[in-house]
Amino acid sequence: MKIIPVILSGGSGTRLWPLSRSLSPKQFLSFFGKHSLFQDSALRVKNHDFFTSPLVICNKEHRFIAAENLLNISTKSLAIILEPAGRNTAAAIAASAFEVVNKFDAQNDVILVMPSDHIIKDQSAFLETVQNAINLAKQNYLITFGIVPSRAETGYGYIKQGEKIENSNGFLVEKFVEKPNKENAEKFVNQKEYFWNSGIFMFKASVYLNELKKLQPEIYQACEASYLKAKNDLDFIRLDEESFEKSPNISVDYAVMEKLAQVGKIAVVPLDVGWDDVGNWDAISQNSKQDDRANSFLGDVLALDNKNCYINSQSGLVAAIGLKDTIIVNLKDVVLVAHKDHAQDVKKIYEVLKEQNREICHSHTKVLRPWGSFETLDEANGFKVKRIIVKSGAALSLQMHHKRAEHWIVVRGNAYVTCEDKEFLLRQGESTFIPLGKKHRLENKGAELLEIIEVQTGEYLGEDDIVRFSDIYGR
Questions:
Q1: Of 209, 241, 276, which residue constitutes the final position of a domain?
Q2: Residue 315, CA distances (Å) to 299, 300, 332, 343 in order
Q3: Which tens digits make up the pLDDT trace of 191-218?
Q4: pTM (two decimals)
Q5: What is the CA radius of gyration of the chain?
């Protein structure tokens, strides 16, 4: 019997803005090494006999990022399920569970639900704890993994253990506790009966669905309908949007776990593995390499007489003098400066920018696409300059724009261009003009990367001014 890993990757990571943005959220970013948090989650269960390949569920906007993240670590998923809208973890797990019970034998449907944006430092201890807990899942318990607390943390919910479950590494859950104040958090840590709520679960997919059907019939019905009406799109499973959006927006804790704890169906298994959900910049700082004054510096940083600071510069030099408990994140298009005591409040900045419809909360100057990437080099009223990279064998959609014209200059490789009824080749140093309103496509049929400089001109230069007529990526 193997465990089926289910990787939840629908989060937005707004507290880690400006590095985390809606089109490239924190789970697909690298903070501590060469791999993204999402890749670390997949690697955690790779090449172990008691796991299958992972099942991934993510936002439809992130499908190609998720697929490329897996490709870059030579990992093939069982499936990538696309959420058409955010409906929290109860619905995401339900959609995944329907895929599991549809594809696997009912006796072999134990799933391990893992958020994709956490860190676990002791991988071997994690795997051993999970493997030892599988018998509880076989006995139809719904298991939540409780993190052994290392400090009086007020940013996490807690789980209080109850009676020990015989012949297992788990306890019945006595109760779930909301995020406490400092005084109660200190009591919880000292009592040794409380754990942080990790959001990591293990249970039979069929058992979860049965309980969900009884406790939350609206979620069950919406997710069942969306799965039954789902369509295969390339390597993805697209849930039906109309059905899925009818699901209530509730976490699995509220929808199922807290209710079943009252009747003795929830087990908590202690997990002491160096876990952190790295939910804000202070958490990133705490888990980064630090000097003897608790500073973490990344990139081009000149720092004098600073203490307990996190400075990440990805664009030019940051010079910092005499700072304490300060976060600085310096990117090409924005600089964030915050006191560590206000790390949670970065989300408020993001929300203001979102209300103002600022592109800076959605995408970086460099944006990944399934065919390659584009990077904004300069822009002002009436024009925008981009560097476009097209991978070998890739092609942009056949498209047109209502409000802009484009001038393309090839700086590397060969560009195959379609403009209305004309098709032609552009070599390095050659250029062409795409008039407003004309159908066009850019392709790279060569073996090397294609790089062009695009100059856009027009009254409106937003990314939503695009009409697609055909697209090999199903957009």
A1: 276
A2: 8, 8, 5, 22
A3: 889 999 999 999 999 999 999 999 999 9
A4: 0.88
A5: 24
